[in-house]
Fold this protein.
Amino acid sequence: MPVTGLDPYDDQNIFAKILRGEIPNKTVYEDDAALAFHDIAPQAPVHVLVIPKGRYVSAVDFAGRASDREIAGFWRAVGRVAAKLGLEEGGYRILSNHGIHAGQEVPHFHVHVFGGGPLGRMIQPRS
Ligand code: AMP
């Protein structure tokens, strides 16, 4: 089911299960604020997901309800992930899908970190 952007948090979503250790993941980085792991279906030479540890559905939910400490910790973790993966020199893209038009599949806030080579246009023309 697509995520509407208005859904309440679902504790059975796949990233909640990953955070509880019920589903394995290929961890890149972890600290108090965030977990980063390789996307199971990579769309770039490097494709990592960074998720906060708290229960937030989307970027707006996170920005609205998370503490300043959680927000700062999350974005610092994103930067650390990029550095750890050696993406800083070549550059990378951060993306977050929100709701139906963006195709959000997992209702736990996450950012995609893409890199490892030229990434092409930011948005593909609609067919
Ligand atoms: P989004 O469409 O922005 O919600 O992105 C969800 C992402 O989660 C997709 O890129 C999926 O490939 C990825 N994904 C789904 N299940 C897993 C999993 N178990 N481990 C790693 N990545 C996953």
In short: Residues 14, 23, 25, 39-41, 49, 97, 103-106 surround adenosine monophosphate (CB under 6 Å). The chain has a mean pLDDT of 95. The domain at 14-115 is CATH 3.30.428.10 (HIT family, subunit A). The beta strands are 27-30, 34-38, 46-52, 92-95, 111-115.
